[in-house]
Please model this.
Amino acid sequence: MKKSFKIEVDCANCANLVEEAAKKVEGVKDANISFMTQKMKVEFEEGADPETVMAEIIKKAKKIEPDFEIL
Amino acid sequence: MNNKQRKMLTRIIIAIVMTIALQFFELTGWLRLSLYLVVYLIIGYDILKKAWKGILNGRVFDENFLMVVATIGAFALAIYEKSGDYLEAIAVMLFYQIGEFFQSYAVGKSRKDIAALMDIRPDYANIEKDGKLEKVDPDEVEIGDIIVVKPGEKVPIDGVVVSGSSTLNTSALTGESLPKEVSKGDEVISGCLNETGLLKIRTTKDFSESTVSKILEMVEDSSTRKAKSENFISRFARVYTPAVCYGALALALLPPLFMVIFMGSPLSFSTFETWIYRALVFLVISCPCALVISIPLTFFAGIGGASREGILLKGGNILEALTKVKTVVFDKTGTLTKGVFEVNACHDGDDHDLTKEREKLLEYAAIAESVSSHPIASAIRNAFGKEIDNNRLKDIKELSGKGIIAVIDGKEIAVGNDKLMQQQGIQPCRCHLPGTIVHVSVNGNYAGHIVLGDIVKEDAQQAISELKAGEIEKTVMLTGDARKVAENIAASLGVDEIYSELLPGDKVKHIERLIKASPKDAKVAYAGDGINDAPVLGRADLGIAMGMIGSDAAIEAADIVLMDDNPRKIAKAIRISKKCMRIVWENIIMAIGIKGICLVLSIFGIVNMWLAIFADVGVMILAVLNAIRAMYVRKI
Model:
């Protein structure tokens, strides 16, 4: 399952780092962040619960970029 | 400007005013330090906070950390030297923030500009309810609903006109202003601007499946597919930042230690002082922001600019691959030719041009074909050009793959190909002209044949020559059509190689062979109209679907979608990609070059803090301005 989120991320490098980190979260098959369109696409593994996975992604992202936000 | 930017701008202005004001007072000691610290905190508190959080989270080496170390270091040196020269630290932070502000403003602005270029999303659809028009969200309209589009409005959802007639402007979709006349029964696609009359449209798709949604989705997704050079930069930044931090540390410690041990310098702070200062300068110069921001910005601007020209690219990786295309393969029908037939000649049984009987031959054929929707039938009807009286037509029989047998004015007329003639016991004439041949017989006697040809697009020849002018080594045409027809067209267009009489599966084999035969970094692009050739589009290094109207499979399979069916757009797409990649490399070379030179100079103490901050912020601003240039592709 794929989902697209509108996000707020302030610097291009942080966007790259958050993308890296999100890819490593359990239950995430693939993740992509576009700094320019301020969008994140997450593809979840079969059977993963999107809400818990997203919570984990946000936690990881905030560590990298405190201003990271999902709108 | 958003809220964050406004707040930042206020902080910058306050800091500048306060810094200038401080220059007029002869302050010394603690008062001087604390006032400068206040300015420092106003301009840099968020950087301090981010750097601190970074350290807590185990992410030490980022730009915030660089800036904090450099500025606090500058403060510490000034305190130690009792020089009271805190201006440097303030300036570094101030210019860094001005640079960040500019970058965020420029990125936001181009984001908006590009979004405006692609402003085809309809906000509402009009639905008639109890005789009144009501505006509803396009998402709520169901398939089969009737929507009303007034002049000046965009068509929100794909559908068929049920009443009214108007002129539609497709420029928002195709980049070219070609007015299209529509009336009852015509299909219309969403995103077109209704110019003249009121249209009632029965929707044939959901909003989410409509052309407009498909295009927007494709453009928005495109920036998540990253080019190799984008990934290269993020990998580069990951290695680079820690490397320069250790480099700065080494610069601060190793030379003075060397002097203490081998040259007898005293082990005191004064030995270290100059080197610490140089290390701080080194840190300020090294900030990688210019590269990190300008490259995704260039790709985004390029993809946005291209989409305004009716060229949809599925990602930065596609843009990059386009510059390496050396072979372009074309499908014939619908790509180089219009896919519309035209009568070229009418011959008698001896293959001579018909004169008097031409009209009669066309008339019989036109009446016999009057109920057929095949492109050949409509070409014959067009050539006949007169009203057809259906009452003369009786007892019509369609033989699939052969033709039509009908009774017209009491005579038995057979209209069809060689096989139909042979079935009728007639030996068909072998025509000397290339093209599709339709034979006509009357009461079992051969009456003559009609030669039809597919019309070559006006721009096809120029498309080929533009490709050749732009470093394309080979152009190839694939077609299922007869050899004679294919050779004729290829010769008139200047195509290098042709393969004719192919079955759909053969096209994939030819693409595979061409990919195998070309060097590894030379890409093979295939352009087709997306009808029956989705597998070929998918197999080629770069699949280009033309005139996307109504073919979802083609959009899925292709890497590039040309909104109109003009083959010249292929050469244009290549030129756009080259411009973008040139800008990307300009920025990489400029940023790394200037920074590299300054870094080396800073080791020898030639660059001071002021120059360092200009090297950093200046390069970033230049790189961003250069990147935005990628958006302007109209004239290339």
Remarks:
- The beta strands of chain A are 2-8, 28-34, 39-44, 69-70.
- DSSP finds two helices and four strands in chain A.
- The first strand of chain A starts at residue 2 and ends at 8.
- Helices of chain A lie at 12-24, 50-64.
